[in-house]
Amino acid sequence: MRAIHISxxxxxxxxxxxxxPEPEGGDAVVIDVHASGVTFPEVLQSRGKYQISPPMPFVxxxxxxxVVRSAPAGSGFAAGDRVCAFPGLGGFAEVVAADPSCVFPLxxxxxxxxxxxxxxxxxxxxxxxxxxxxxxxxETVLVHGAGGGIGIAxxxxxxxxxxxxxxxxxxxxKRELALRAGASDAISPEGFKDTAKELTDGRGVxxxxxxxxxxxxxxxxxxxxxxxxxxVIGFTAGEIPTVKVNRLLLGNKSAVGVGWGxxxxxxxxxxxxxxxxxxxxxxxxxxxxxxxxxxxxxxxAEALQLMDGRGAVGKIVLxxxx
Length: 322
Hints:
By secondary structure, the protein is an alpha/beta fold.
């Protein structure tokens, strides 16, 4: 089968298209992949800067959608089922084997390209907002990086639960996409703290979703109102910020770590519990993955370079020509 290899830590441009043996089934669900989602961890893995860094060469790719080829008895899946999955690794390939606990039935309303956009972003956002952030209906949620995959999922998830979303995105095109995703307001990163205060009549926001990090962090804390929470999801800006804890004391604010992978790996069954909660929202169109760019598998390097340059508007997906 065709697949993508990371065989050096020289960045996205150094990844290779290879022919390798198909994975064996065993206790796994074997999936003929139609589409693979592209995420920021793959960019980091291409440079050896992600916490999961297998021995090289390896096939990256954490999320896929496709059709079940075979499944073990008792898994709940059968040949021909439309699914999406979170294999963690191996997704940039024509065939993948995934643990049954990481495979999910794909609603008929979603295409394979949309389905490949779901596992990482939607389940991370569900964990962030519903579990770690304790989001309640009627709150105001400020979302950084609102034009990317995590940002769109967060905007849609918060809006679907009756919350006001203030989207922060770097270009007019990304801000327009955030409004399409359900944001009430879409603003520029420049001066976002003051703008958020104005939009909330000086009260501040209840939650900040931050997959960006960098120099926005302090102003994000200042943008919070009483008992506000900032959800630390990632650092696409590259810099890991520091926090002066007196800023948490003032206003009774909280900085909340969101380590979805660490949590579900130590809590068996959690992924399926999440899926039971998000699948109705997907089927109803309240969570509607907005795909901004599609690349064939052999152009995976270009897809990762687009992600690396923060040029993505919406989700980036690799397609397999099936």
